[in-house]
Design brief:
Layout: H1 5-20, E1 24-28, E2 36-39, E3 47-51, E4 54-55, E5 74-76, H2 81-96, E6 102-113, H3 117-123, E7 128-132, E8 136-140, E9 143-148, E10 151-154, E11 157-162, H4 168-173, H5 176-194, E12 198-213, E13 216-228, H6 237-243, E14 252-253, H7 255-266, E15 276-280, E16 285-289, E17 293-295, E18 299-306, H8 312-321
Antiparallel strand pairs: 1-2, 1-15, 3-4, 3-7, 5-6, 6-14, 6-18, 7-8, 8-17, 9-10, 9-16, 10-13, 11-13, 12-13, 15-16, 17-18
């Protein structure tokens, strides 16, 4: 992906802090137009996060509101199936023309809720939660990359089902469309990691997990891919992260052409939605893909991967299933 002058400055700052082994947090939008980074000890950062228990804030009150004293209200108003079909058909045509194998199509859904973004951030229970003041809140279940002990890990997530459906796990694991989509993304991520590391391999393939939502459980499929980084990776940590963007699971394959298809179908920039956020502690790194995302204007963003095997009704329902907040 081409980056602008602002991205170049952030990339260089991340490299410098990596060389100094100075802990920092970063936030990069899908288009790489307005990335941000902060030293972790920076006072009054507008970006707060809780990434698998690692926080950059002290626990705070939520203006005397909680999900027990004030029942959580969350009402989505999804676009019609007919409106979704217009976008879906446009993407399917591009796939049929051979311009892409897989396109991540997302849409906006207006939400009515009685909680503020900050309250949602404090109360939500997810692997990765983050909040950019006056902009968005995100409760992501998906890792972008992790760096541990000189190795880089990625966990692409592709395949979603209502876990209350009988035999949900078996149905998802044996769905031909979901298998093909997942294999495409795993291959793409293997290629991406090979650009920054060696001995890249799939260490776990298509494992099933369940995620809690306010309406029940969702089943999802992920894989684990790992590579060996060079010993001086920290000095190029910014370059490494930007080289991997955008995340394959929320763009598609091949990336460059698919990004154009996405813009034509969605007719809007995504901004921080489906971008990445993370922190570097001086040696190790953890980061997430910014999905399960609610904007300050009350718009939720969700979607899924479209392939030549995709069926309209199933993709529409998957988009709706992903409109949730993990408050329970």
């Amino acid at each position: 992906m081409e980056i602008n002058s602002q991205s170049q400055l952030v990339l260089e700052q991340m490299n410098q802090w990596g060389q100094e082994k100075a802990p920092f947090a970063f936030l990069i939008d899908f288009e790489c137009n307005k990335p941000l980074c902060w030293k972790l000890e920076a006072p009054k950062s507008p970006f707060k996060f809780n990434f698998q228990g690692i926080k950059n804030y002290a626990d705070a009150p939520t203006n005397n509101i909680n999900s027990k004293s004030v029942p959580f209200a969350f009402t989505p108003r999804p676009i019609s199936l007919e409106a979704y079909k217009v976008k879906f058909d446009g993407v399917k045509r591009e796939i049929e023309y051979g311009n892409s194998f897989l396109v991540n199509l997302t849409v906006e859904t207006p939400i009515v809720t009685n909680y503020t973004l900050e309250q949602l951030f404090i109360l939500a229970k997810a692997k990765y939660t983050c909040w950019l003041k006056d902009n968005f809140v995100c409760f992501s279940p998906e890792t972008f990359v992790q760096i541990k002990n000189g190795q880089i890990f990625s966990y692409p997530m592709k395949g979603t089902i209502d876990a209350s459906i009988p035999n949900a796990e078996a149905l998802l694991l044996n769905d031909a469309k979901e298998i093909a989509e997942h294999v495409t993304i795993v291959d793409l991520i293997r290629n991406d990691l090979s650009r920054v590391s060696e001995n890249v391999h799939v260490s776990r393939f298509r494992f099933y997990e369940e995620l809690k939502t306010q309406d029940g459980l969702l089943g999802q499929i992920s894989s684990e891919i790992v590579g060996q980084l060079p010993s001086d990776y920290a000095t190029r940590i910014g370059t490494l992260i930007f080289d991997l963007l955008p995340a394959g699971s929320i763009s598609g394959a091949p990336k460059a052409k698919t990004e154009k298809i996405i813009f034509e179908a969605e007719q809007a920039q995504r901004g921080y939605y489906t971008g990445v956020a993370g922190y570097f502690d001086g040696t190790n790194l953890d980061s997430c893909v910014l999905i399960r995302y609610l904007q300050a204007d009350g718009t939720y963003r969700s979607g899924g991967g479209i392939t030549f095997q995709s069926e309209l009704q199933k993709e529409y329902q998957e988009m709706i299933n992903k409109i949730y907040v993990p408050i329970f």
